[in-house]
Design brief:
single chain, 389 residues, mainly alpha, 3 domains, rod-shaped
């Protein structure tokens, strides 16, 4: 009996030690009870149940594939895009981008967002179109704010061009100026009524007409120069062709056709410039021939000897004129040839005058010598007669 009790106590102690080694620092040991402790098997290890993956969620109706954009949506998108582009161009045209930079940047942000959207689906196309429309509306707001100042600037530009035309000699009742003034007035009316496209067209046309009128005035000045300097005869065909173009430009101005008037006015001015140059060239050729003839006359009169300085001056100018002609400076050449010709002629006259004086002196001396011989002979005869007596 004692032996069995001992073994029971021993088994209980062994089991307690085993639990202590697994549980860490045990609490203070208690005196085991005297009653026998049955030996029990260690508790079985219980595993956690396996973690199961959550069930896959089926996509909701909103996440289902969207239908592709149809033609109507794409057409609406393209229309909205073009509307925004046109609105943006109008803003820049009137200077709204610089007058209202913050507002312009806000509109640009909307435009950039619209451009960055991929319009593959129906909804995406509609969203992009809506963004373009918002940008267009923002641009239009800027345009309306900037338009009055722009219209005032254009009116001032046209007024300045009109004054330039008046200063150039155009009369207020001239048909060309009347038509141009009407285009300028129509432009002002268009800006005021909100018809921007028509106002711009009329303003641009008026500006072209005023510019054409100034070019016609330049052509008139060239025509007057050629007439006053008697140059028309040196290129009459070219002059007449240029004058015809100028008249056509004037008629186009009276008809209010700015582009046609400007082109014809530019052509007329170019033809007048060509005619003037040709006239001076032909004049220079004529002057060179005249100067050459005078030079030869001066040489024949021995002016290079009799009036050496005058001839040398003329000869220098003659060579300068030839150099100017070779360099296509025909007006200069004609003028210098003319001066050289005059000096050659003067030198020839001076040489002839000196020669005539010299010849007269020689003749006087000869006559005097002859008279002296006659007196001597007479004296000799008197002496001979006296000796015979």
């Amino acid at each position: 009996m004692v032996k069995k009790t001992f073994f029971r106590i021993l088994a209980s102690l062994a089991l307690a030690l085993a639990f202590a080694s697994c549980a860490g620092d045990p609490p203070a040991a208690e005196t085991p009870p005297e009653t026998p402790i049955p030996v029990e098997s260690p508790p079985a290890v219980v595993e956690d149940p396996p973690v199961e993956a959550p069930p896959m969620e089926t996509p909701s109706a909103s996440e289902e594939p969207q239908p592709a954009a149809d033609k109507a949506a794409l057409d609406a998108l393209e229309s909205a895009k073009n509307t925004a582009a046109a609105a943006r161009a109008r803003v820049i045209r009137v200077g709204g981008d610089t007058a209202y930079p913050n507002d312009f940047q806000a509109a640009e942000k909307l435009l950039n967002e619209a451009q960055g959207m991929t319009a593959v689906t129906q909804q995406a196309a509609e969203d992009a179109a809506s963004r373009y429309q918002a940008a267009a509306e923002h641009y239009d707001e800027i345009f309306q704010k900037a338009l009055p100042a722009y219209a005032a600037r254009r009116a001032a530009e046209l007024a300045s061009a009109r004054q330039a035309a008046l200063d150039a000699g155009w009369g207020i009742n001239d048909p060309a100026l009347v038509a141009t003034d009407k285009a300028a007035k129509d432009a002002a009316d268009g800006y005021g009524s909100g018809d921007f496209a028509a106002a711009e067209q009329n303003a641009d046309n008026a500006a072209l007409l005023y510019q054409a009128m100034l070019l016609i005035s330049e052509s008139d000045s060239t025509a007057k120069e050629m007439t006053d300097k008697e140059l028309v005869k040196y290129d009459r065909n070219g002059f007449n062709a240029a004058q015809a173009l100028s008249n056509e430009a004037r008629s186009a101005c009276a008809a209010g056709s700015g582009q046609d008037a400007l082109k014809k006015a530019e052509d007329a001015r170019a033809r007048f410039a060509l005619s003037l140059n040709t006239a001076w060239k032909n004049c220079a050729i004529e002057k060179s021939q005249g100067a050459g003839a005078e030079r030869k006359g001066a040489l024949d009169a021995k002016a290079n000897v009799a009036v050496r300085d005058s001839f040398a001056q003329a000869d220098t100018l003659y060579n300068q004129a030839a150099a100017a002609y070779q360099a296509s400076r025909f007006e200069e050449a004609a003028g210098v040839y003319g001066t050289a010709s005059a000096i050659f002629a003067q030198a020839r006259e001076e040489a002839i005058e000196k020669r005539d004086l010299a010849d007269a002196a020689i003749e006087a001396a000869r006559q005097k010598a002859a008279e002296s011989d006659s007196i001597a002979q007479n004296a000799e005869g008197v002496l001979q007669e006296g000796g015979n007596e």
